[in-house]
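Q: What would this complex look like in 3D?
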Amino acid sequence: MADQRTGLWLIGARGSVATTAVSGLLALRAGLAPPTGCVTARPELAEVDLPSWDDLVVGGHDVVTTCLEKRAEQLAHAGVLPHHLLPSLVDGLAAVDAEVREGYHPATHRGAQATAAQRLTADLVSFRERHDLARVVVVNVSSTEPPVPHLPEHDDLALLEAALADPERAVLPPSSLTAYAALRAGCPFVDFTPSTGVALPALHQLAVDLGLPYAGRDGKTGETLLRTVLAPMFTARGLRVRSWSGTNLLGGGDGATLEDPEHAASKLESKARGLAALLGEPVTAPLHIDNVPDLGEQKTAWDHVSFEGFLGARMSLQFTWTGLDSSLAAPLVLDLARLVAAAHADGQSGALGALAFFFKDPLGHDEHRFAEQTRDLHAWARELGRYGA
Amino acid sequence: MADQRTGLWLIGARGSVATTAVSGLLALRAGLAPPTGCVTARPELAEVDLPSWDDLVVGGHDVVTTCLEKRAEQLAHAGVLPHHLLPSLVDGLAAVDAEVREGYHPATHRGAQATAAQRLTADLVSFRERHDLARVVVVNVSSTEPPVPHLPEHDDLALLEAALADPERAVLPPSSLTAYAALRAGCPFVDFTPSTGVALPALHQLAVDLGLPYAGRDGKTGETLLRTVLAPMFTARGLRVRSWSGTNLLGGGDGATLEDPEHAASKLESKARGLAALLGEPVTAPLHIDNVPDLGEQKTAWDHVSFEGFLGARMSLQFTWTGLDSSLAAPLVLDLARLVAAAHADGQSGALGALAFFFKDPLGHDEHRFAEQTRDLHAWARELGRYGA
Amino acid sequence: MADQRTGLWLIGARGSVATTAVSGLLALRAGLAPPTGCVTARPELAEVDLPSWDDLVVGGHDVVTTCLEKRAEQLAHAGVLPHHLLPSLVDGLAAVDAEVREGYHPATHRGAQATAAQRLTADLVSFRERHDLARVVVVNVSSTEPPVPHLPEHDDLALLEAALADPERAVLPPSSLTAYAALRAGCPFVDFTPSTGVALPALHQLAVDLGLPYAGRDGKTGETLLRTVLAPMFTARGLRVRSWSGTNLLGGGDGATLEDPEHAASKLESKARGLAALLGEPVTAPLHIDNVPDLGEQKTAWDHVSFEGFLGARMSLQFTWTGLDSSLAAPLVLDLARLVAAAHADGQSGALGALAFFFKDPLGHDEHRFAEQTRDLHAWARELGRYGA
Amino acid sequence: MADQRTGLWLIGARGSVATTAVSGLLALRAGLAPPTGCVTARPELAEVDLPSWDDLVVGGHDVVTTCLEKRAEQLAHAGVLPHHLLPSLVDGLAAVDAEVREGYHPATHRGAQATAAQRLTADLVSFRERHDLARVVVVNVSSTEPPVPHLPEHDDLALLEAALADPERAVLPPSSLTAYAALRAGCPFVDFTPSTGVALPALHQLAVDLGLPYAGRDGKTGETLLRTVLAPMFTARGLRVRSWSGTNLLGGGDGATLEDPEHAASKLESKARGLAALLGEPVTAPLHIDNVPDLGEQKTAWDHVSFEGFLGARMSLQFTWTGLDSSLAAPLVLDLARLVAAAHADGQSGALGALAFFFKDPLGHDEHRFAEQTRDLHAWARELGRYGA
Ligand SMILES: NC(=O)c1ccc[n+]([C@@H]2O[C@H](COP(=O)([O-])OP(=O)(O)OC[C@H]3O[C@@H](n4cnc5c(N)ncnc54)[C@H](O)[C@@H]3O)[C@@H](O)[C@H]2O)c1
Ligand SMILES: NC(=O)c1ccc[n+]([C@@H]2O[C@H](COP(=O)([O-])OP(=O)(O)OC[C@H]3O[C@@H](n4cnc5c(N)ncnc54)[C@H](O)[C@@H]3O)[C@@H](O)[C@H]2O)c1
Ligand SMILES: NC(=O)c1ccc[n+]([C@@H]2O[C@H](COP(=O)([O-])OP(=O)(O)OC[C@H]3O[C@@H](n4cnc5c(N)ncnc54)[C@H](O)[C@@H]3O)[C@@H](O)[C@H]2O)c1
Ligand SMILES: NC(=O)c1ccc[n+]([C@@H]2O[C@H](COP(=O)([O-])OP(=O)(O)OC[C@H]3O[C@@H](n4cnc5c(N)ncnc54)[C@H](O)[C@@H]3O)[C@@H](O)[C@H]2O)c1
Ligand code: NA
Ligand code: NA
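A: Here is my prediction, written as structure tokens for the whole assembly.
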């Protein structure tokens, strides 16, 4: 499927992750940076038939107007982008910025959600046609939403569409409305955030009906990545984890959003689910996300694991992870665009469980162990396109 | 092979690891403790036909006379063994202590090394016969030796045996002389230390000739365990490790031994080899082992990993591991005794590469990634006895 | 004042801190342990005339019945007390346990608080008389209470005593009722907890009227100790702290109490007040106290300080403190008993600001910097008894 | 003494510390940055009569030719200087660079050391005269030297000067030759490095004879700063430190120099002296300095302190310090220039012990405790100029 021009449509296109992904793509295309952090550039995936960096065309939705060039400057100041690259990226950033359309904002929208969805769908179709793209992968990298109460309409497509048409209701959170619009435009959908997104039975049904693949959710870039790597070690060695405590300090847009306990809830829930699954039993696991604005784009996570060994011996492991979240997330966004495009070309539909590797809370797969996820990813990718279109 | 009485012969039988292993075996047998930290007690290995805790009979060599009861008291004081267990273990410890024979000490031995080897072999044969054992697995948990210069005799069994007979020479370090004696007694050999032991071409030849399996070397219980778990994460994610610095603080007998830079050398070498293999390229990797007597049996390791992500972003991971080394090592010694006994019963010979899971510097296998080692171990164990004796 | 038999009356006499203090006092008296962690044993205070270990007689109040011998065994198991000391301490612990009376418990008490106060006062007077003590210092080491709303009765002794006599009201929290009873018995009072205790204007008035000294509050034994040591460094060097984040993991009785956010509130408040005072400006300072039962008596605190240097350079300091809280607190309880007894003998009354050294939230003094507190303590102690009774 | 134009002459004027100090001075002067990290800008020193930022004129010696503008760019890339400041600093940097003269290099110098000293002295005198300066403070911020063997000539000025005149000998290390030349030019001398510098009896004599003050040595900016803050806490609380282990990871020019164990020796020695002095007894204190080039200007220090409390309880403190060394050092260099200039104006001579606050290995004072050093500094500074010129 190389040489097939492929769209990458970012929900939250002017956020940190999106801006870093776009800047990086421009740099990769210009040969100004190696693909460090890109999983699809690993030798293990070298043979897989994927869209090349040159094949990707980027657009997106956002609800703010600060342009990508400005955001890139801020990210250079924050240590995410190298200052010396900026001049070479300005034109490319402006070109992408010109493809950013106004997103759906629940606070400003008037009328039925269906109307909003139609507008979003139209944006996607227009983008695909104007650029003559084989397909467009929609990736949600917008602000994390609070968890939403489950409604009967979420389980049944007919009920859902009826509710969407009702101007008095707002039955879907923005992420799910966006997912709905993407599917209706015939686009595969990836949820890089912990928001609800496509993870509703009615939307799953729609994806399967339309033969569209989707993947999610919540990109795994820090503390959870380490947990899915370390927890299997304790298990394999028969060591009994007694408590796993964690504190995350982060600034940036994401820090501000997650400061609100309601927004943090979905993040904390997805993290807790994973840990219990990994250890096979519930352990004491206090977990905090603190907004520390002065840290900017840097995220610092401290974990303290207390475990028991032979004859009850008490031991511990602590780690401190100091990451630039957007630097970790951005290459994965590009990877997901390439892999999901290939899955679509291959005719796959529904949740792509083999992409669990990328997510804190994998859809379509119960595997949380990183090494097994790595193996699953490689095996799946090697099969891609073998019997495909 | 359950119900086959099996010997476990410990070189360094009065050391910390040995005393903890024996105490734990007694506690397991009496139902006083769960098999925490025992890999052979994991559900994944539940079906494997292994000697039971009741089937194991323990003896060993040492060069000190402090009895096991005394050593167990010291280890309780150091937090390795629980005080309340001691009274129930006293009789069992005394029984094992009665099976400890004088080891080979290069400084006190007079005459040809062959004579010493014959005595060690005789001790093993006598032990096997007196207790009517199906087999005896010899496990080296004695003090770490300095690395030895390679000699031509190490490559050729005939040359080696000629040199052993020469009263003027001491061609083998103690660990290798012991391995030689074990093989000559028809016993499988496991090297839990970084010493040379069985890892010489001439001894490999002897093991193969006699149809004996062996495994090693250097039990993986702390910093290296974590490295073999964490390094593959960076690789799988395409993140570039730039430096991996480490400091180990330890007291105890092992701390005192490794304070001597000559003795530490073999430990440091085996650690460096592993890291380079894991990362696929050499990185700056300063590494220290410090003797800090007041820490007693506790080992504290601090590692600082500096890595590079997308567009050159600089990030880091630090961890502090606080382990009780003997508590981590002892259950593995019991696991190895059971697994190597089963391999012997199964007719396997030479290096058991599938046991790489247990070792810093695996013999017979190049795999350093912990998750792959885990998979290899499980696969191998499930085959054990399938076509065996 | 040496050779004056002095009472130490512990509120919460069967808690971890109290049991450790009593065990330690017995060991010190028997010459079985050096006074490690005792500030009054430092050379700087060698000349101060204080009651000796032999002069101290201990009793107290508690609301549980588990005896001190049993509690000491639990603390040995938890690593706070050395196993080998227990046999030598059993008799002494039983003797103290025989001096423990039932404390005031708001949930079980019926009738006016004044009645309860009279009973507590009577217990103290009886103790002083039966043992022929020069004075009795009351030290509160009972469970932390939630903060209480301020009432007009707290500001005026007459109003307060009227309310205490009303059987329908419970105007004082237990710690303050206890402080009231202590003062009414003519006893100096020390609050080692963050509870309200003596820190009410009406009780201050009573202390001054009766010529009684008091000290508090909230023993400084871990994270806060470090903060009062480290924050002045940043200030003295002109470095600008931008955020100071903290997480405390603790088990034990204190962990269980503080798990309740209402109880934790007073602890968190006293910590935040201190940090702002030290840095001279408010900084982002998220702080958590997590109950991690498996840690037992061990407390682990992680702090992350982000600071700015010359030309805006961004730097950080992290620390991990792993303390046995009761081991840190107990010698200070003994120190406070000795020092406050001497202040009483010296005729001092009201808040002893010079004891700020010992507390997170010092009464009678605004100084939070540890080095200045040390100097103040030494200077004050050297003056003690110079013009005294 | 404000309004007295004052010279600051940097030995190693093109190094990281020097470049940062100069850049910062230019930024301060232009009002582009606040004096974060400058001790002389603290309110406690507000009343002291010191040269202002505008009064300082900078020149120096170095043995490399990379100009200051280039070095500043490199430091911006390394995160030490903010990118956006560079354009405003270019002219000022060029002006200072024009005042940099060739330093003394032992490997390239031919002839008697006296000749070299005369040239250095002449450079200083010319600088003072050309700029019409009231005085010039010489600050050594050049590469750390290996420790030198003590010679009889180091103790006696006459012997020393005779040896300096001998073309066959090189009796002084570069730092001491420089100090000699500075004194001969009538300039106060500050040693910010651990090199020998002015710390020889013969040079002390010369300083006193000429009525010149000096200060040193080895700027205290990281691990040692923390040690001098933390160790007194353990002491004041009667807690017994059992071991204090440290590892320093650093890149940059300093990292490369200290990789050589010979050069590191003087650094390690000065650190060890301090720790023993602080704790009052020798403790196990392994210490490492590792060159980790990829860390660039960042220094990461990990310390692990194991200590004993009441009844032998075992506890620990760890910290990780992540500093930009040059950002920490540079403002202190400016502080020292101002303070030593004032001391000179005040007529003080010999070692300025009150400046111990700034140094790992203070000359003229035995005080290592940071809080006491702070107090000494403030007290001394307040007296400055009171009876002076
Ligand atoms: N960076 C990581 O490592 C990582 C990992 C996992 C998940 N995530 C998730 O990725 C998301 C983006 O993170 P970020 O750091 O870029 O955050 P950010 O705050 O910088 O960017 C979010 C962007 O989404 C936009 N947005 C908000 N609501 C929108 C809407 N209704 N429609 C369209 N756009 C909308 C915002 O205007 C903003 O530009 C977050 O949800 C975060 O939780 C990030
Ligand atoms: N504990 C761990 O986690 C771990 C991990 C990997 C390797 N190891 C290795 O295991 C070994 C044992 O560790 P330990 O902590 O028990 O040390 P230890 O010092 O407590 O015990 C070593 C014992 O070996 C005995 N010994 C010395 N020379 C001997 C000889 N020639 N013959 C027979 N006995 C001899 C000593 O007398 C002592 O009793 C060390 O080599 C160590 O490096 C331990
Ligand atoms: N250990 C430290 O380092 C430290 C430091 C600062 C403050 N403190 C405070 O010291 C107190 C004691 O800590 P601990 O670890 O011993 O806790 P703990 O739970 O082990 O002991 C508290 C004791 O108080 C008793 N108690 C509860 N209510 C009472 C009442 N109304 N009257 C009399 N007794 C009562 C309980 O029964 C228990 O025996 C806590 O408030 C804690 O916050 C401890
Ligand atoms: N940065 C800190 O926090 C800190 C703290 C304490 C001490 N120091 C000391 O400060 C010194 C400078 O550190 P840096 O990071 O700037 O190092 P650097 O390597 O960047 O700079 C040293 C400079 O000295 C020059 N030099 C070498 N030999 C010389 C000579 N004979 N005459 C004149 N110049 C010479 C070099 O060419 C170089 O420009 C080092 O000795 C370091 O140990 C620094
Ligand atoms: Na982010
Ligand atoms: Na406690």
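A: To summarize the key features: Chain C has two domains: 6-219+327-383, 223-325. Chain C touches chain A through 22 residues (CB under 8 Å).
Q: Very helpful, thank you.
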